[in-house]
Fold this sequence. Notes:
It is a single chain. The protein is mainly α. The protein has a domain of 218 residues: Up-down Bundle (Rhomboid-like fold). It is built from 17 helices and 3 strands. Strands 1-2-3 form a 3-stranded antiparallel β-sheet. Helix 1 runs antiparallel to helix 3, helix 5 runs parallel beside helix 7 and helix 15 packs antiparallel against helix 16. The longest helix has 33 residues. It starts with a strand and ends with a helix.
Amino acid sequence: MYFFYYVPTGLDVRRRRAPTITWFLAGMCVTLFILSHYAPARGAWNLANLIFFPSDPMLATSLSHAFLHVSWWHLIGNLVYLVVFGRALEDRFGPARFFAVFALSAMAGAWTHVLLSSLFDPAYLDYGVIGASGATSGLLGAFLVRFYYARISVAYWVFMPLQGVNRAGTQYVPALVGVACWFIYQGVFALIQFGSSGVGVAYSVHVGGFAAGALLAVIFGAAPRARAERLLAGARRAVSGADFFAAQALVLDYLELRPGDWFGRLLAARAFLSTGHRSAASAQFASAVTLLLGDGRRGEAEDAMAEAMRAVPGFSLAERAQIDMACGLERSMKYRASLDAYRNFAARYPESTETPFVLLRAASLLERRLDRPEKALECYGLLVERFPDDCWADYARSEIERLRWSAAESGARAAGQGRGRGGEIS
């Protein structure tokens, strides 16, 4: 017996949003499978009404049949393709367009089956069609257009006893190769199926769904976006392979096409750091933080800010943005990063009217959060020395007196305890 089995398990595609529609569709498939097999309804609520019959095709059932499945294996097989490829597509297309690809591919697959059956083997018109295969085939078609540059992680098992071969494992394959092989396989079996006896799998549904998904991806403008993102994917692979000069060139080419991509800016900053260009890295970090703030992604902006300050000594943003990020880091309880941001502000904008406030916040962090009152005293002293007439100067003077009195009291207490211990020993 010769046996070869493979299943996609993942993609080397970075996602940025939660795949809510993908999980919703998967949940619908599981729910209707359980209801149809373990709690069958009667009358108008009979789920058999959702089956698509080529002999009596209806627009509604050309979609509803995608949520019904014959067996657990049938269900699991389609869910694997839905989850693996659907999450990446939903991330790039958005929920509405992704659902349109799923639904229209399912419908196109069903009507393709009607057409091909009518032309080549009318006997197939009497068999009902169920399953999300047409929809998931459409996802594959859309994936090929949008992610032709990507790689698919495939789990495989090869069993050839006469040759002494029994191998299993996982392997990345280029998307073009993996999807092209799948499409050829479906097309060949669709041709073989017509004229043969018995019906197992409606391969013509797969072919129609695949073509619809690819066409919709083109209509949605996926091709030019894919060409741009191919450069970013190449840059990421170059970074993972420690080829930083190549990564730098690729990501700069990408940013010419997509200047507003914050992740591309971060990748460019890391590539510049690896090649020793700190000033260029600082500029890219600043652009990334600004873009993240513009998108309302404050948490990620703070993480990028903290990374930039660790990597580039003295890193800072424009005046207002620097204060905003420093205060945000403090509110997020990232105290050390916040202190660095305050210090960098004071160093870059020594004459700013906001510098006294910044020194005040830095002193507060040093004393109350980082337990370094002696450093807090230095910040208060700097504030009074440089801005003696500022509204915060009097407060700083009172804090200096308090800290000095507290330090003197602590010293006297420690000296008294030392003398007490000395008396006991003698």
